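## retry 2 of 3
previous attempt timed out at serialization; input unchanged, resubmitting
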Amino acid sequence: MAYKKDKKPRREKKIIVAKNCYFTETGTKPDYKEILVLRRFINERGKILPQKYSGLTAKNQRLLALEVKKARYMGLLPYTDRHAL
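## retry succeeded, writing output
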């Protein structure tokens, strides 16, 4: 049998995790009319941040997605970064 060279050690993935859910701490629920709160969970390209970065609970992440979509439909939030305000 041929001797295999040692493989390079794998780098550990660094995951940025927010510690607590914003809505649980404040005792509120996501609402499409609160644009400043919704903007906290949208990146500069206009995408909704994933749960591992936003730190929201699964339930609040689903509610947030629905409320962001409502705000986009109403014209309160842009769909992408290419829309002029």
